[in-house]
Amino acid sequence: MGALDHLSDLFDCSTGRSRVKRRKQLQTVEIKVKIDCEGCERRVKRALEGMKGVKEVNVERKANKVTVLGYVEPEKVVSRVAHRTGKKAELWPYVPYDVVAHPYAPGVYDRKAPAGYVRSIDNSQQSQLARASSTEVRYTTAFSDENPAACAIM
Fold first, then answer.
1. How far lies 18's CA from each of 11, 13, 21, 76, in Å?
2. pTM higher than 0.70, yes or no?
């Protein structure tokens, strides 16, 4: 920082706001919106294309998914879709099936999810999954085919 810049910052008489504006990062926002027809798809796309900072909008009608690429905040994108189209919008709640350790656990499996996706959960919910106790493990390994000395009755 040069001497002139330092002096101009010291004697700045503008408002309390900083002159350096923090730029938003380029990010991809995925939203779940119920899209029934081409008209709904066009309405959602137009609502988002007119938003400041949006670079690209992709709509997948079968998956009810809208992907927005740009310098935007996810909450503002969701509120814009809900306000402009009158449709219920939420951030994309699903992750690919392969990513989740227990895809059929309660709260993870969702029948309404598109094919190959399950509901996204945080790790605190995964730790609450039912784990086998030591007695259950002993009984299940006692009748296992991998353990040849497990049971003489079989």
1. 13, 11, 7, 23
2. no
